[in-house]
Amino acid sequence: AIQLTQSPSSLSASVGDRVTITCRASQGFSSALAWYQQIPGKPPKLLIYDASSLETGVPSRFSGSGSGTHFTLTISSLQPEDFATYYCQQLNSYPLTFGGGTKVEIK
Amino acid sequence: QLQLQESGPGLVKPSETLSLTCSVSGGSISSNDYYWAWIRQPPGKGLEWIGSIYYSGNTYFNPSLESRVSMSLDTSKNQFSVRLTSVTAADTAVYFCARGRGGADYWGQGTLVTVSS
Fold first, then answer.
1. Which residues of chain B make contact with A97, given a CB cutoff of 8 A?
2. Which of A34, B11, B20, B45 is spaced 20 to 30 Å from B90 by Cα?
């Protein structure tokens, strides 16, 4: 199974900051990676699929990049509603796996 | 607009079987363009993929649960289900159903299942 390691596990940032979250895979694959945002008490929300494709309705301040074993999610200018936990998920091969999550908190 | 809704017991006794159903409205589950998945989240922890099922009947499961889990589709009711046998306290979690293709784009709200006597 492909293991995904997210870093950092948590971060503190201010509104307007640029934030980058990393997801590293134990085996390389091309682009079958998704990013989700989860607010407490809510289901995850799909932000990015195929590593860099923005899901319909997701603000353009979110972007994804990467391939192989290194993927990133970037929020270009953090907004108050972006304070949440973010997860990566690989869909390259079964079993599907999630990263451990990155909690973005207010500084 | 596609909607998914989980249903099932909120409390299950240890060693018994957990059964949940996901009712889908606003679209049909009878398409091989998507997979239908169950994901769970223990309180305060991260997401764990349980398994996926396709309209073709193909299923894929988390190896850590494979000996205890099964999934099925009921196209007449536009529902899909999961069964997890021999549950323990470690199976206490919020269980989500979801539709996926490049990623899971529609999710149910989740249902908390507690395993306790």
1. 49
2. A34
